[in-house]
């Protein structure tokens, strides 16, 4: 989609919006992108860096453009969280990379999952993470191995293209799209069309910041459209036609905002063009001067949905879009597709919980084998760090459940195992302040021992820093990593607590209380005390989030 003509020639230096005439680099990131498009780094990796090794990488590529190929330097081992904000990036980084393989719509074949597993085992010390954006993430990757990794991924239709960077990131879709009888609409084709046309396209390779998309007709709203930059949410209009409601401007991090409905009905055949129009608005009108205000949510906060709709229609799609209805509320509070779900063809989808998304390449390979043995080789990733095996006949469901349990993959997990998520954390992330993955696993295991009969859905999201990769603001109990003073006056790893966040009807971000922090060592005791209070005081059928909304502050500290 070409950029529309501009009607103003007066530069608006204040926000650095291209559409208003100001295109000069405004900060180091904008300068880096102007010097060389991020997509161009791919060839340098193939021709130069994979041969010279880590020390031969240009700094602008190393800490900037390589993200366009899904590569970040990982944190050097042994650097404590208290040093995160003190050291320069080159002092924090190791000579290894985190690599992210994008899995649009969460759709995998068993062959693809074997390749993903094999890469982890052979090149990533047998470590892998299933992320809360349906990707698979590696660690310990050497630049010398990247060309071979790309070759293997591309052989099964996967890539790392634009898995990071100021670009369209992985496009979320319901893992059970086209599978369940009660979905509003199957978004598989519109995701595929949009990815094929625009991922890796220079038209959108220089956006102000990251651009997160979801397209889904899931009745559970499992892609969490409330917090994506742009979302297409399945609806049925008054004429009985299935299509999409357009939402724009969601995002978390240090300034969380919910997406706003634009109020238009988008037919399936319009989705790719409307997505490109929304992305073009972000590219052209997005704020580029200050990086911490460069997300679409800040533009939406200033414009509002009415102005966004006007610009969308008048300048980009060049036609009026009809008014559309709001989608129905999510059918279920839990959006992870864990458990056994009946497919419309009579088979079953079997969803299971990992250990806060952490897994080995060897186990990914085993899961691929199980998907072939018990299903038809189709696997899906979810936005809750879970996996689903499709097409399992009734008579083999329990056998598969048992086979997965042998590897501690739980189809019927405890409320704590099911509801706990964690970001990458201090182990590998240069932004993190605390360790998260193992701590979250230890936390849910301890809560299972202390509260074995707890059966209410509960989300516990453990985040290593304020950037909210694990969405701590929308969890029942959200832990944001920080340094905390313990009883001896020493600074130790700990968390600021956010309580009662939830999405859906009357969505809200979690409550926080001035100065309310817990040390890492105190989290299990704190959660137990908090949840016992909930069990004692709750009303029949009351959710934890609702309880928090009416709770006295003393109950929550």
Automatic annotation (TrEMBL):
Its EC number is 1.8.7.1. InterPro entries: NIR_SIR_4Fe-4S (IPR051329), NiRdtase/SiRdtase_haem-b_fer (IPR005117), Nit/Sulf_reduc_fer-like_dom_sf (IPR036136), NO2/SO3_Rdtase_4Fe4S_dom (IPR006067), NO2/SO3_Rdtase_4Fe4S_sf (IPR045854), NO2/SO3_Rdtase_FeS/sirohaem_BS (IPR006066). Residues 1-15 have a biased composition (Polar residues). Keywords: 4Fe-4S, Heme, Iron, Iron-sulfur, Metal-binding, Oxidoreductase, Thioether bond. Its cofactor is [4Fe-4S] cluster; siroheme. Residues 1-37 are annotated as: Disordered. Residues 165-318, 417-550 form the Nitrite/sulphite reductase 4Fe-4S domain. It catalyses: hydrogen sulfide + 6 oxidized [2Fe-2S]-[ferredoxin] + 3 H2O = sulfite + 6 reduced [2Fe-2S]-[ferredoxin] + 7 H(+). Transmembrane segments: none annotated. Residues 94-155, 342-406 form the Nitrite/Sulfite reductase ferredoxin-like domain. The keyword Iron-sulfur applies. Catalyzes the reduction of sulfite to sulfide, a step in the biosynthesis of sulfur-containing amino acids and cofactors. Belongs to the nitrite and sulfite reductase 4Fe-4S domain family. PANTHER family: FERREDOXIN--NITRITE REDUCTASE, CHLOROPLASTIC (PTHR32439:SF0). This is assimilatory sulfite reductase (ferredoxin). It comes from Geodermatophilus aquaeductus.
């Amino acid at each position: 989609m070409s950029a529309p003509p501009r009607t103003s020639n007066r530069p608006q230096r204040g926000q650095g919006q291209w559409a208003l005439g100001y295109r000069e680099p405004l900060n180091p990131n904008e300068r880096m992108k102007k010097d060389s498009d991020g997509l161009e780094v791919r060839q340098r990796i193939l021709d130069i860096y994979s041969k010279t090794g880590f020390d031969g990488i240009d700094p602008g590529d190393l800490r900037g453009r390589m993200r366009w190929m899904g590569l970040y330097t990982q944190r050097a081992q042994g650097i404590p969280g208290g040093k995160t904000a003190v050291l320069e990036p080159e002092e924090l980084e190791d000579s290894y990379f985190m690599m992210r393989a994008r899995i649009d719509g969460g759709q995998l074949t068993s062959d693809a999952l074997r390749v993903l597993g094999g890469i982890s085992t052979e090149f990533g010390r047998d470590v892998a993470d299933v992320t809360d954006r349906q990707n698979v993430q590696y660690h310990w990757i050497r630049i010398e191995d990247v060309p071979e990794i790309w070759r293997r991924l591309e052989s099964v239709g996967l890539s790392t293209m634009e898995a990071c960077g100021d670009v369209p990131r992985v496009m979320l879709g319901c893992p059970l799209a086209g599978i369940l009888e009660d979905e509003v609409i199957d978004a598989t084709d519109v995701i595929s069309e949009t990815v094929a046309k625009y991922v890796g396209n220079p038209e959108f390779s220089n956006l102000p910041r990251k651009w997160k998309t979801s397209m889904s007709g899931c009745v559970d709203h499992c892609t969490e459209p409330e917090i994506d930059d742009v979302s297409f949410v399945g609806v049925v209009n008054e004429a009985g036609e299935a299509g999409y409601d357009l939402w724009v401007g969601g995002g978390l991090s240090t300034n969380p905002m919910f997406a706003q409905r634009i109020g238009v009905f988008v037919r399936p055949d319009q989705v790719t063009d409307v997505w490109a129009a929304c992305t073009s608005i972000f590219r052209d009108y997005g704020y580029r001067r200050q990086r911490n205000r460069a997300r679409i949510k800040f533009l939406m906060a200033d414009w509002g949905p009415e102005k966004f709709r006007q610009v969308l229609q008048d300048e980009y799609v060049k036609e009026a879009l009809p008014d559309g209805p709001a989608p129905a509320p999510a059918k279920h509070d839990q959006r992870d597709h864990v458990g056994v779900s009946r497919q419309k063809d009579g088979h079953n989808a079997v969803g299971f919980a990992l250990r806060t998304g952490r897994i080995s390449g060897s186990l990914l390979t085993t899961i691929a084998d199980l998907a072939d043995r018990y299903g038809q080789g189709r696997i899906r990733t979810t936005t809750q760090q879970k996996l689903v095996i499709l097409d399992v006949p009734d008579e083999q469901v329990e056998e598969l459940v048992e086979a997965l349990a042998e590897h501690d993959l739980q189809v019927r997990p405890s409320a704590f195992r099911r509801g706990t998520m964690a970001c990458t954390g201090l182990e590998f992330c240069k932004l993190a302040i605390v360790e998260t993955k193992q701590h979250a696993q230890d936390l849910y295991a301890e809560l299972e021992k202390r509260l074995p009969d707890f059966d209410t859905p509960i989300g516990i999201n453990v985040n290593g820093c304020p950037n909210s990769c694990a969405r701590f603001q929308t969890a029942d109990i959200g832990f944001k990593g920080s340094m905390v003073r313990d009883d001896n006056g020493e600074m130790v790893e700990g968390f600021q607590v956010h309580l009662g966040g939830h999405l859906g009807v009357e969505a809200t971000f979690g409550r926080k209380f001035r100065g309310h922090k817990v040390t890492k060592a105190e989290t299990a005791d704190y959660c137990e005390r908090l949840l016992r209070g909930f069990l004692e005081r709750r009303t029949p059928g009351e959710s934890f989030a609702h309880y928090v909304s009416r709770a006295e502050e003393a109950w929550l500290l």
